[in-house]
Amino acid sequence: MNMGNIIDYVRQYSDISLKERPFNEVDALVLSQFIYLKWEHIIPRLRDNCENMSISMMCSVMKERGLEGEVFMDERYEQDNRALLDAMVTGVRFGSLSCNYLYDDIDKEAETQFFAFTAFLPDTMPIVVFRGTDETLLGWKEDFNMAYRAPVTGQSHAATYIKQVALRLPGGFMTAGHSKGGNLATYSVLTAPGPLRDRVLKIYNFDGPGFNREIMEKYDYPLIADRLYKVVPESSIVGVILERDDRYKTVTSSARGGAQHNPYTWLIYDGRFDYTDNVSTASRVLRDSITVWMDEADPDERELIFGTIYDILASSEAETTIELKGSKKASKNMLKALRKLPEETREKIKEVMKDFKLQI
Known about the structure:
By secondary structure, this protein is of the alpha/beta class. It is 44% helix and 14% strand. An 8-stranded mixed β-sheet has the order 1-2-3-4-5-6-7-8, sandwiched between helices. A two-stranded antiparallel sheet has the order 9-10.
């Protein structure tokens, strides 16, 4: 049996129901990628009190309203996203998927990019899914804010969202997300009141960053640790930042370096992730060096460094990472902004950007 990715997985198990083969971590990753499609104007909102919308209805509405371009607007994964949706809607395993309770907030002033919905599948618990960092620089800004501020607006939204959704769900449920979405899926449960926290039976965090020590101690992280299922690729960058719990699993990838953050590169064999004990040296060094620096640096220094990095990226005048990549004008503007900084700050910025594989 050959290795495949989540598209191959959905195709291979398209006719196998969740009753025959129970929901697992690969299914959770499928939904964590599915939420990256731009469903903002299709799925019923939290405030609407509507019936769940099936995936087939979502596709029908998309076509009837001419929203296909919007749903697949993220050029980075457009072809893969189209293939994933087609495989999901035509099979038994995900063909009965329905979604509801959409909530989103994109606010430049609050520096947040938040999106979540709740997914329903037969023969398994509901799953609250959080979108990770999208292609916008605003999304990256919130990621940087996580390095020195807690909670960021997205985390506050996640904590509020899970409370509101829990009122609409009768029993146990799960949470999931990729990248920042994994952090939000974890944070929403970590900070929840005891009775609500106990209703969440599984937390899936796919290559999402960890937390400052203060957060883990304040909310007693061990109370959720046994329900947290975290997976990172071999050369993880995002998922090892501030990660203090070594119990995460490592999956092989068809890509190299930072490109492994893309869930479509994660390899699957016989319906499960192809796990490995090999973690790249760079990933281990990044985890240890960044975590040590974060612990030693005071909040003002962390804010200065990460705030300045974002200002440099913003100086490119790009709105998305797609526009940023390969733009000579963007590189020129960022270099110009970098040269204006004091030498000591400039060198620290270069060091941190190098660690995070951010290139100018």
